[in-house]
Amino acid sequence: MDFGIFILAQQRGYHQTSQQVINNSIEQTVAAEQAGFGNAWYAEHHFNNYSLSPSPLMMVAHMAAKTTRIRLGTAVCILPLYQPARFLAEVGFVDTVSNGRLDLGVGSGYQEFEFERFGVKIADATAIYNEFLDILPKGLTQKIFEYEDVRLSFDAEALEAIAQLALDRKIGARGLRLIMEELMLDLMYQLPSTSGVKECLISKEVVLNKVNPLTLLEKAG
Predict the structure, then answer these.
(1) What is the rounded CA–CA span in Å between residue 171 and residue 139?
(2) What is the average pLDDT across 128-147?
(3) Given this structure, which CATH class describes domain 4-220?
(4) Can you say how many angstroms the Cα of residue 107 is from the centroid of all Cα atoms in its chain?
(5) I need a surface site. Which of 7, 75, 127, 179 has the fewest CB within 10 A?
């Protein structure tokens, strides 16, 4: 069994400054490693004090310099709010500076006001998310690739340098894991519980071979 902590970085009242909230998150991660926890996870939210963590990848990069053993995860990166080429480059960078301790959690998001302020329609979230899931394995394993779909597209030349960065630093070779948050209703209703967001921990091999997550859940159950 693996124990970890989830850090929301919530500002519970204006008696707390943003500096205090973020410093507490940093201190909690250091304390978790000292206490023997296996991983620490960081949220992503925007435009309210529910969470003062707008970039879990930045938190992972910062905490990688302050810890040595604990795995560091994003819970979750809201993919429809990202530009795919930049996202791939930042994942490669964070995996490198963390010496392979990154657990990459991705999701489609659910807060409509966050989407509105980024100029993204929440109605498109699932479709954009699914296109990202096609892009991620390619970007993390191939030197050159191109992609074109309804909402996301770019040519091979544009991604060559970014993909090379990922290959040079052997993304996944030291244990990069991908967490996929699945929000499609047909999948949700096939799972044992239909309440809340469903997440499935999947190895890099499962992602590349497109194994159905339900198969894993059935075996685990």
Answers:
(1) 10
(2) 84
(3) alpha beta
(4) 7
(5) 127
